[in-house]
Amino acid sequence: MADEPERPPDRFVLAYGDGPEMAEVSNVEELDALLDRITGEARADQCPCGVHIRTEAEWDGPRMSLGIGRDFSYLTFMTWHVDGDLDPGKPTEWWCGNDRGEIPAHRGIPVQTAREAAREFVRTGDLPTNVAWADNEASP
């Protein structure tokens, strides 16, 4: 009997904000509604943050992160990053929980591109295909 294709996960857990806060989504509509709410909060607080999305498999499964609350975003998938199209410059600051992190300016990408990658991840549970991923160690 042929192997059946692996089914995408049923639920995804998002971690964001102070604490961090945790929420679950099971489809793209729930993801968009939650990302819209988090974006509004981040902009109101003037505190851009990283949103970490993982499967219910805790940290054994695939996971990705995207930036929320700026006019641009970033994407990571485990140790992979997207080479962005912003000019190199000062790293940008993002918050997750009480931790501040910086993303190199050249990793910035359009918010809509990051959101579509998050939607694809929730639909498939796999590395999104709408961006060209670069291995972190091989990138500048």
Automatic annotation (TrEMBL):
InterPro entries: DddI. It comes from the Bacteria. This is Immunity protein Imm1. It comes from Actinopolymorpha pittospori. The lineage of its organism: Bacteria, Bacillati, Actinomycetota, Actinomycetes, Propionibacteriales.
